[in-house]
Write a structure and sequence with these properties.
2 domains, globular, two-stranded antiparallel sheet, 8-stranded parallel beta barrel, 289 residues, binds coenzyme A, alpha/beta, TIM Barrel, binds magnesium ion
Length: 289
């Protein structure tokens, strides 16, 4: 499936060092997986995780789920070896941590250009530092750049802000990143919800991210998948409304009118763009099953 046309409701981080979790993910109804070599992997496990992950991904078995590999940063002692190993398997996307400048991305893009296995490999960026947020609109235009992942734990640390249920202190960062992603036409995924046993809190945060315009949420535990998939999918009512709007607008156009009315609300061409996107998303989700 075309990576841009697929759903990204639920995007689960899996530590590249955890064999059981890597195995379990093959059965989970997630839209995408971030196979992690960075912060979810302990320093003493870095080399083993790299070997285990490249072997696991070469064997396959992840079906329609998008596969994104998060490497360690180029400035760390593992960054080069991670990139070298991961390029051999030509993954769908490589996720770079703590991206703060377009140059960091261009450097990796040039390496991918020179590697025959990586002709179609995209680059994604973690936006998780103040500099990253401030430069997001430039980073979004980098070669091969296709998606942002918000690193809200790192951001909160650097901003020195408090965790609040309404995430007020993070709003500027979330929305600046989203603006940049939308301006460039790339995917934007919300950060993780740490309390993985708190379904109500997760639902509220998913709804907030969805309402802001995020494509989906990154997750740390399988228990978070069901709620997230539900919140980020168009509801039956939304699909029904989209169908009725399209039908009403077609009818209006046939009569030479540019405007229709559905449920007492005006429907113009721009609403039809949204309605068609809703139907396309519902269909893409159905195709994941
Ligand atoms: N992906 C896939 N499977 C996972 C998983 C994940 N992120 N987290 C847990 N599982 C699996 C476990 O392997 C276990 O499977 P099993 O039944 O086959 O043994 C099952 O889900 C239940 O796990 P549980 O015992 O509830 O979790 P835990 O206490 O072992 O681990 C965490 C809890 C938070 C440490 C773990 O979920 C984790 O490592 N999450 C990812 C963290 C991460 O990637 N952070 C970086 C980005 S913020
Ligand atoms: Mg981080």
């Amino acid at each position: 499936m075309d990576l841009a046309a697929r759903p990204y409701r639920s995007v689960l981080y899996i530590p590249g060092s955890k064999e059981r979790a890597l195995e379990k993910a093959k059965t989970l109804p997630v839209d995408a997986i971030i196979f992690d070599l960075e912060d979810a992997v302990a320093v003493e496990e870095k080399a083993n995780a790299r070997a285990l992950l490249t072997r696991t991904l070469s064997d396959g078995g992840y079906g329609a789920r998008a596969q994104i590999v998060r490497v360690n940063g180029a400035e760390t002692e593992w960054g080069d070896a991670d990139l070298f190993a991961v390029m051999e398997i030509g993954p769908q996307a490589i996720l770079l941590p703590k991206v703060e400048s377009i140059g960091q991305v261009t450097e990796v893009a040039e390496k991918l250009d020179a590697h025959p296995a990586c002709a179609d490999t995209q680059i994604w960026a973690m936006i998780e530092t103040p500099r990253g947020v401030l430069h997001a609109h430039v980073i979004a235009t980098a070669p091969r750049m296709s998606g942002f992942v918000l690193g809200t734990n790192d951001l909160a640390k650097d901003l020195n802000c408090r965790f609040r249920a309404d995430r007020l202190p993070l709003q500027t960062s979330l929305q600046t990143s989203l603006l940049a992603a939308r301006a460039a036409g790339i995917v934007c995924l919300d950060g993780v919800y740490n309390a993985f046993k708190d379904d109500d809190g997760l639902r509220a945060e998913c709804e907030q991210g969805r309402d802001l315009g995020m494509d989906g949420k990154t997750l740390i535990h399988p228990a978070q998948v069901a709620v997230t998939n539900e919140v980020f999918a168009p509801s039956e009512e939304e699909v029904d409304l989209a169908r009725r709007q399209i039908a009403a607008f077609d009818e209006a156009e046939a009569k030479g009118l540019g405007v229709a009315v559905v449920d007492g609300k005006i429907v113009e061409n721009l609403h039809i763009v949204t309605a068609k996107a809703t139907l396309a998303k519902a269909e893409a989700i159905a195709n994941m099953a």
